[in-house]
Fold this protein.
Amino acid sequence: MSAGSIPSGSQIRDPGYPTPSENYLTNSKGILSWMFTLDHKRIGVMYLIGVTTAFGVAGLLAMLIRLHLFQPDGMIFQGEEANNWYNQVFTLHGAIMVFLFIIPSVPAALGNFLVPIMLGAKDVAFPRLNLCSFYLWVFGALFFISALCASGLDTGWTFYTPYSTTTDSSVILATSGAFVLGFSSIFTGLNFIVTINTMRPPGMIWFRMPLFLWATYATSIIQVLATPVLGITLLLLIAERTMHIGIFDPEYNGDPVTFQHFFWFYSHPAVYIMILPAFGIISDLISVHSHKRIFGYRFIAYSSIAIALLGFLVWGHHMFTAGMSSLTAIIFSALTFTVSVPSAIKVFNWLATMYKGSISLTTPMCYAISFIFLFTIGGLTGLHLGTLATDVHLHDTYFVVAHFHYVMVGGTLVAFLGGVFHWWPKMFGKMYSELGGRISAGLVFAGFNLTFLPQFVLGSRGMPRRYATYDPEFAFLHQMSTWGSLLLGIGILLAFVVLVCSLKYGKRAPANPWGGATLEWECTSPPPFYNFERAPVVGDPYDFSNLEWDTENERYVTIEPEREVVPEEQPEAAPVHAEDSN
Amino acid sequence: MSAHAHSEDAHSEDGHSNDGHDFAHPMSVQTLLLVFFALTFLTIVTVAQSNFDFGAFEVAVVMLIATIKAILVMAFFMHLIADKPFNAIIFIGSFVFVGLFVSFTLGDSMMTSGSFEPEIDLVAPAVAEQMEVRVDGAP
Amino acid sequence: MSTIEASSEVAHDDHGHDHDHLPFLAHHFDTPEQQFDSGKLGIWLFLVTEVLFFSGMFCAYAIFRALRPEVFEGCSQFLNTKLGAINTGVLLFSSLTMAWAVRCSQLEQHKGLVGMLAATLSCAMIFLGVKAIEYSHKWGMGLLPAGLFFYDPNNPHPADQPNYLIYICLPFAIALVGVVVWLVISVITDNAFQVAVAKPLTVVCLSFFVGVGLGMVLESGGEQHVDVHADPDGLAIEPELETLERENAAAIALSGAMVPVDESVLKRLSTDVTNSGVLSSLNAFEQQNLTAGSSVVMNEDEILGGITTTEVNVMTKRTAGVFFSIYYCMTGIHAIHILGGIGVLVWLLVRAVRQDFNRQYFGPVDYVGLYWHLVDLIWIFLFPLLYLIR
């Protein structure tokens, strides 16, 4: 639909603005009202603050890594313990990013806020469990902080045996933290599955749900099925360290590769926990900012479920060089190819949605387009790694590092930022500076590519990962990568500044700043604490035909054609045919 | 049936009988007791079968009886037989994933265990004594 | 799901819900059935996570049993089948009482509900009591996870071991004392509600010691502590018999020898290579001893005319230690789940005495029931896999 003025003679439906006693941010005051809140929106905001903090800490660790690698002999850590320090830095960077940021970010921070509202519901199915999930996240974070302050962690975020069972760093503290975080993840997923199953409004059949909800549902399936296996793996690791149960120890007829099987059975589906919600965000972003119905709705919905299920069949591709039997390796390689198909289907559908759409290059759209580009590169390089013959050479090199950063940072982080920019007006009722937002998107895109594109080359030329020093032949590419990381850091910092400043200086946000057709745009910005006064009428979530841009108020409004409710003419006293009868 | 004010709930239509208020399906005591006795009987069978040697099928027989007991518990005690099928699907489905996990990991372990070092355990004390005597007596 | 029809006169500030006449219906649900269905789906999903959680240990079990079946056979004899079977029966009965409790809550039979919950709790406590005996007995013998394993077949019951049973029973004894004290106080202060709660809880706490007593009675009679030897080929001679045979063989060999019997003379003579007769006699002597000391091979296909097998000792850290690692992990985590279940059931008991449940709101009883049945299910699989390996 084109942006224009509202056609004359039509009625506008717009929820308006909330009063302070309705606004969920202000309806009750005091720190306790936040600490013991059962409001899913407040819990979402607390998660947002938490994951952002974790991201900041782990991001600084990443900067430390890149600065250290500026020189072949290492620029930051010197002396005897240099390598040990480096090991700790990359381990904690990975562990904090994976467990405290990426896995909870979209489902917990955005999902908690949006899922009930997109369903027109008052809250999630189990609000107290939701709060419990948040506090479990906090406890997990505390465990990690204490591991940091105690003897650190130097095993790599993957905790491979036998090093993790014999090193004297704080493995037990960190694995306990990851165990607790696992339960946070499980309960969030459980909550969402039940909410989406039992609390959909009348008229919202499965295929009338926004695709963000399909993505959340698929993610939750993985969370519920895979995370417990991580739980038992970490528990067995703790038992091994304390009681020497011997399962992973060759001295006791055990096998370290068994640990890797146990670990990756969770951790591979975990990467789909990281990316599927991002897919959901992008589906909504592309559609709304192209003002065009999403192309291939059913294909995108089915592909989300397909990825969730196929993702459980491929964990062995992390272990091609670990010592599995060759038959197992071949089977896993073949299965890995299948899981790339649903993702490719999604990318085609997004591009087809953009084609002949009326694209507004808003900040969320800039991030969404970045996502498509960056995720495609990440996904395609995954094929190099899924192919057994090439993976044998590329495993444990910088190629792998570049691949997973493309999908996790270029994919999930970019989509997360896009989602935050897209729903920020809804969550906090403020519009941010579009110029600042777009610049941040550009800086993130440029900085990210400058950081990680050289790493593909580094990896294929033989630079191993997790190494603190390297041969001088790799120096130029490493330096390019480090400069890129500084640019990326500035871009992300700018995004943060733009958003935080909007809280104070931003314009008041209308209910529907972007012209979305899903239910969350039918309540005020920010929503009232009860979400909807009465359950909203469910329409097609991607039908933008009756949304118009109201230039005067800088908002999108739903248009209804003028209807005559009360007839203007009085009916005649006598019926029309009265004089005709006989 | 306790008296219940229907007021606003009278027009809440959700397609179920009794307006979503009478949804309990109590199991009969007879069913519960029958299932319990069946389970006890199967437990006795399980213990008894250990006196027979089934060779390679040992584990299979034992797991079969255990599975039958499990199905009885799931269908009756856990009420799956009268529940929404979705609940049964997700629960049985979880065993599919368990099977996937165990089969791949166990299979890989079996295929690679032959390449491990030989299993050198301590020799039995009786034979160890023998070796000692031999050592003493040998040149 | 139903539509919420709020009247249009409701002021903007008033939130649009009007169902607070049902105190047990949460504000975000429309009908009690929706609330019940949501909770049901939620608990089934939780049970899915529990199944996946235990799957890791079942996988480790499968790997080790496939790798070293003889170890599992040897060590399973240390697990008292009688106690295991009783525990199985107790848990099955507790499943029955739990399912019955759900029925009582659905039919609003409040007294029956309390009784059934108390019965379930008592069975759980008996289970733990028997487990306490099993565990403390094994710890005293040194049958521990691989890293801590110190079982010695020559000294199976070392005297210097602390009395682990007392340590395990202590918290339960404290709980029992606490509950009895609470009962007495509530009787004195005439608080009917507290009496109604404390009475069943006293029975529950006592049941733990019933379990301990049961375990004590049966443990001493049920186990075989023979020196366990793994026998890959099938038939072995009893150790005592072996010694006798060995001595006989030596005596026969020596009596039939044409050379002096004195061993020191034999040794001196054998140092000279030219004494081929002595050397071959000594050789034959050694062969006979070794043959007498190893397992008898009945299968003629396997006879190679010499030593074909040596017995291996499975009671080492590397072998039995791993079996017990898996045993303790599986039964230990299962016992932790029983403890968790006991906690939740006590909470349910208190609510049941308060008559919180009715025919439209019995969800919590149903959900805890499902959890309890899962705990029983896991034990149904654990029992034959651990206790009945022959």
In short: The radius of gyration of chain B is 28 Å. Confidence is low (pLDDT under 50) at residues 1-18 of chain B. Residues 26-114 of chain B form one domain.
